[in-house]
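The instructor's notes for this session suggest beginning with a concrete chain rather than abstract definitions. Hand out the sequence below and ask the class to guess, before any prediction is shown, which regions might be ordered.
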Amino acid sequence: MAQLASYTDYKYYLVTSPTPLVAHVEINRPAKLNAFLEAMWLELRQLFQQLSADPEVRVVILSGAGDRAFTTGLDVQAASQGPLLKDAAGGVDVARKATQLRRHIDEFQECVSAVERCEKPVICVLHGISIGLAIDLSCCADIRICAKDTRFAVKEVDIGMAADIGTLARLPKIVSSFSWVKDVCITARDFGAAEALAVGFVSQVHDSKAAALEAGLKLAEGIASKSPVAVQGTKELLNHSRDHTVAENLRYTSVWNSAALQAADFQVAMLSGMKKTKPRFEKL
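After discussion, reveal the predicted structure:
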């Protein structure tokens, strides 16, 4: 599995290509259980912006390096030295301190949301400890699968705050039960892979991290073989439908496809179906 040459400058992420047109992104701070420093979420934004525009990538797999954790969330020790917990220096008043904090939170949200905004489908493979920011990140992915040892938690209440990087906005739109969402978010209790599967948070559970990664790669290979115009359009339209009415989404779809249907991909796919041959699609 070769490291992608144009992605070697990232300090906290290892980006490899296990198969053509597929990028595997590993959160790469295993000695600290992949806990996030500010530099890591800033890199995350840059990385997923690059992946989004890269014609050599059609699908992204996101996982965590090491055996113990996808991520334990925010590195609380490092965060204690940042603007979140620092006292207002020099008598800065409440309004000005709040403005500084809001800007800090907005940037953090925007960096994590880069995963969701990535034009390419993102398959998140979770294992081991997957708490706090793990939920924010995985909620931004398009497909979530996990190992059976995965331990999830929306942990923010236990550190004295409401989750503010996306879980409370996205999780209620992902799973089948709003009662369950309030249960896990308000109590900050752990839940396992079987419970995550039962409510629809993940779509597959596998015996080990290796098996989950193998399943993620198989999914990615299948998606990468399809028309990138069709795949990226489908992601865009599904995400739009989540946040808009049916009528608004139908209108958006008609405008979107008035351009997308003019791609060569439509004709290539139709002809290959009739001829029972494997289609080949140009890079996008």
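Then share the key points. The longest helix spans residues 94-117. The chain has two domains: 2-224, 228-275.
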